[in-house]
Amino acid sequence: MDFFDIGRILLSLLIGAIPFAVVSLWGTGIDITQVGSKNPGFNNVLRMGFKLRAGITLAGDVSKGFVALVLLSRPEDSTTILWLLGLASVVGHCWSPFLGFKGGKGVATTLGVLFYLVPLYTGACVILYPTLRMVGRRAGWAQEGAIASLSTIFAISMAVLFFQGVESGIFAFFAWVLIVIRHSANLRELLAGGKS
User: Fold this and answer.
1) Are the C-beta atoms of 77 and 68 separated by less than 8 Å?
2) What is the per-residue pLDDT for 192?
3) What does 16-76 look like in DSSP terms, one character per residue?
4) Sequence-separated (6 or more) residues with CB below 8 Å from residue 90
5) Dihedral through CA 42, CA 158, CA 160, CA 17, nearest 10?
6) Cα–Cα distance measured from residue 83 to residue 99, given in angstroms and rounded to the nearest whole number
7) Do residues 126 and 111 lie in contact, with contact meaning Cβ atoms separated by under 8 Å?
8) pLDDT digits (tens, 9 = 90+) for 104-119
9) Domain ranges of the chain
10) pLDDT at position 195, please?
11) Which residue among 25, 84, 164, 177 sits deepest, i.e. has the most Cβ atoms within 10 Å of its Cβ?
12) pLDDT band at 143 (very low <50, low <70, confident <90, very high)
């Protein structure tokens, strides 16, 4: 890895750090980091009653993980560099320097990265998310959103490990660990028997 690679990784982090939940609410006077769950993500914008703005947030958060790789990757890049570029955008989203190193939970941006790096496995597994959300809502699961998010990224990580080998699998599981860290409060509530 050289200074050019490090520069690209930092740029990817900054692309990932763009807080689309904040951008989508420009002009409303609402600071998404101070209302609802205070999480700058799709679900919190949706809870505020802004369906179109929530859609913009989701599209932006997924796209920035994908776009960072489109703009910054090179044909000669190793598997490690590609994953580092992708994971940097997720880290940027989760701990955005534009939000005082706070941020969202990283699921949408991680999916954008995975759609670029492993589109087949991501496309095959992503149906788990809406399926588990629907089942969980009907069954009254506590934290059905966290369960759906963690299960979906875990399934993709397992597919990457099984079909693409240890190197990519380790990076995919690291992405899952980032999601676990960002959902730690949800997991504590789940273990305590709290409701979503």
Assistant:
1) no
2) 80
3) HT--HHHHHTTTTT--GGGSTT---SHHHHHHTT-HHHHHHHHHHHHHHHHHHHHHH--TT
4) 16, 65, 106, 109, 110, 113, 175, 178
5) 30
6) 24
7) yes
8) 999 999 999 999 999 9
9) 1-108, 118-196
10) 45
11) 25
12) confident
For tokens 């997924």, the residue is 62
Q: Taking Cα atoms as reference points, which of 111, 131, 133 lies closest to residue 123?
A: 111
Q: How far apart are the first and last CA of the chain?
A: 43
The pLDDT score that the predictor gives to residue 194 is 52
Measure Cα distances from 68 to 18, 35, 62, 138 in Å.
Answer: 11, 29, 11, 37
Helix (H, G, I), strand (E, B) or coil at 194: coil
Beta bridge partners of 152: none
What three-state secondary structure class fits 103? Answer: coil
**Contacts for 95 with CB less than 8 Å, ≥ 6 apart:** 101, 102, 103
Q: Residue 146 has which token pair?
A: 């966290």
